Each structure stands twice: as structure tokens, then as C-alpha cells.
Amino acid sequence: MQIELAEVFKGTPEGREAARILNSCVHCGFCNATCPTYRLLGNELDGPRGRIYLMKSLLQGDPVSGRSRQHLDRCLTCRSCETTCPSGVEYGRLLDIGRGLMERSTPRPLWRRWQRWALRGLMVDAHRLRPLMRIAWTLSPLLPGSLRRRIPPPPRLEPAPSTEPLSASGRRMLALGGCVQPVLAPGIDQAASRLLGRLGIRLILAPESGCCGALSYHLAAHEEAKAYMRRNIDAWWPWVEQGAEAIVITASGCGVMVKDYGRILRDDPDYAGKAARISALARDIGEVLAHENLDALKPLPSRRLAFHAPCTLQHGQKLGGLVEALLTRLGYELTLVTEAHLCCGSAGAYSILQPKLANQLRNARLSALEAGAPEGIATANIGCLLHLQAQARVPVRHWLEWWVEDAGETAPLQS
Fold first, then answer.
1. What whole-number distance in Å separates Cα of residue 282 and Cα of residue 34?
2. Which string of b and e fits 153-182 if b means at least 16 CB within 10 Å?
3. Model confidence over 360-378: pLDDT tens digits?
């Protein structure tokens, strides 16, 4: 697909990268077959090929409208199309560029801008989110059932991963502070800490680390996202210099983002080198465990689970099948889940900004996940967990939490 960039985009890093990606697309349309929104809506402009045409028009300087932006908004950024594409088109990166340019060229109505600003302000800061959730949990019994189901249950209080001084010895890996997960499901990182502890690895939380930047980045607030990235790099860097083996990430959506720090900050003279090093150290918890001897873990009672593979794990990080293999090694029986490549509809803030489509996608996923009569559903991303949990008929937990429960790991690890 050839493109002649408009003058305003010629010579810019974004323009050059977008042109390179567009030129790799042969317009075959294979991507539409695995696009969740195209399957639901049947509109060419709500599939990857049509959205690529819209972004090409934008980059060529053609007039664009709010309707074009709507078709980009409806994309889940699930990147299933990338897994399908025979030409290796980097659609997710092109979409990030296109959305950023669209925000600048075709501003949203004021109230829509405020909505997105409020989402970014509240969801990425645990200190702001926690008091709001306490209010929601207090008022939950008074709310209608349809609204009450959208509020996740309050978590059990769990100690955080260790925040030891730099002089700590032994095998050490770093954790991501996070934003939503520490408030709504703090047991996930605690489960990671316990599991790694059984393998002789200490999981260290750098106190100043926080949101990975994914929510802001995918809502086209790129500079804001880069500020979060730099903060995390600064928080982790002293530990990296002291020889930390890896940065362990338990939310697959965050994992995709941290692994991309090196590319996103490659033109930053102060952070390019550090960002590349951080991305090289980033590991999904499954990647870490796949290379460890798991014989030290307690045998588990037999349990039948359905695994929902988050898009960020199987399409974003290209780690499809990894967690399923680990769950099998740990003793779980996994049910057959049809069309496991499809998105559940969570997709960061998508379930809030596009609730109708998100709910349709969730209903389809739950039908597939519950078809095998599992005792519970396991997943690897906090967003998927919360979205599925609101309507599932069986418990939904991060797969690490299932291990903690079934292994009887109820006491904090000893220091």
C-alpha cells in the first residue's frame, strides 16, 4: 500500500514510521476474519483493513471527521490481526500513531475530552482510586443490581511485595507498582511473591514505581504516558544497577507496555539507553516460571479450570500457550475453550468508553469459557479479570491466585 505523506508529516518520526508500516500492508483482508469488532458489526471500516485506509487518508492530508475517529475508537487494540497478518503489519503501532494524530487534527467535544481526562486521572493513580472504591463498596448494597455488578468486590488485605534496601542479597527480581491492580486485586502480586519465594527468588517492589503508562498511551495522551515510563525507569534503575535479574509483571497488559519502553523512548537522549535495558529485563511472570524448576512447589488438588488468554499475552507479547502449559505442569485440568484468540472486551478503558460492544464480546467469551463446566476461570490480566468477573457464573481469578488458594499458601513469606 503506497502513500504520499502530507507535507506536515514528511520528515517527522511518526510520519516515517507510519509510512513504513502502511507500505507493508498488501490489503489482503485476512485480518478481518479475526477482528472482534468486524465480526460483530460487519462494517469494513470497523475492521483493521478499513481502519488502515482511514489512517492512510489522515496521513495523506485528506479531510477526516469525527466518524473516522469513531471507527478508530471502536478498535480494541487486541492485535489479533497482527497474529493473523501474513505480511507482519504492525497494526497496533500504526493505530497508536493514527489516534494521536487524530486527536490533534479533529478535537473531540469538550465533555468527551473531560471524560477521558477524568479516566486517566482516576484510574492510573492508586492513591486517588482507593478512596473512590471505598465509597463505591460502601454504597454498593444500595445500588441497582445492574450497577452493583459493575463494582468489583473489595479485596482481602494482603501485604505488598518486599521493599527491601538495595543491600539485600540472593536472587532478586523487581515488581511493577501498578495502578488499578494494587487497589482491586492486591493478592495477585502477593501470590507472585509467595510463588517466587518458594523458588528462592525475592520479589522487590520499588516504592516509586506505579502505572506503566498503557492507559494514557492508548488514549493518545502520549507525553503523559512517557512521564509514567520515566518515573518507573528511575524507580527501578538503582536495582538494575545492583543486578536485579528481571522485572516481573503479573498483568499482561502492563507487560506489553513495559516491553515497549525502549521503542517509545528511543529518541529521548536521557532515557533511550535505560529504557532499552528495562524492556530487555521485562518478563511476564509466566516467562520467569517457565525457566524454573517447579518441583519445589506443593502438589495441587485436581481442579478443572477454563483459561482466558488475554489479548495482551497471546497477541501483544506472543506468549500464547505459555500459561496453559504452566497450569498443566502445576496439576490443573484445563477445559477446551473455543475461539480462544478473541477478545473479552475489557481492553483497558474500552469497557467504559464502548460498553455496548464490550458487553457483547464479554457474553460471547463467557459462553465459550463456561461451556466446559469449569470450577473457575483463570486469566493473566487484571482488566480481563474484572470485566469477566462482573457477569461470570463461576469464580474468576488470576491464575496465580488459584495456585495460592489450592496450595494452601495463606501465610506471608518469611523474610
1. 28
2. eebeebeebbeeeeeeeeebbbbbbbbbbb
3. 999 999 999 999 999 999 9
User: Torsions phi, psi of 333, nearest 5?
Assistant: -100, 125
Nearest to 211 by CA among 148, 129, 274, 149: 129
pTM, two decimal places = 0.91
Whether 42 shows a pLDDT value over 90: the answer reads yes
pLDDT given for residue 165 in this prediction: 61
Which domains are delineated in the chain?
Answer: 13-107 (1.10.1060.10), 111-148 (no CATH), 171-290 (3.40.50), 299-407 (3.40.50.1860)
CB-based contact 184:63 (threshold 8 Å): no
Q: Give pLDDT tens digits for 96-140.
A: 999 999 988 888 899 999 999 988 988 888 888 888 888 888 888
CA torsion, ordered 237, 241, 243, 245, to nearest 10 deg:
30
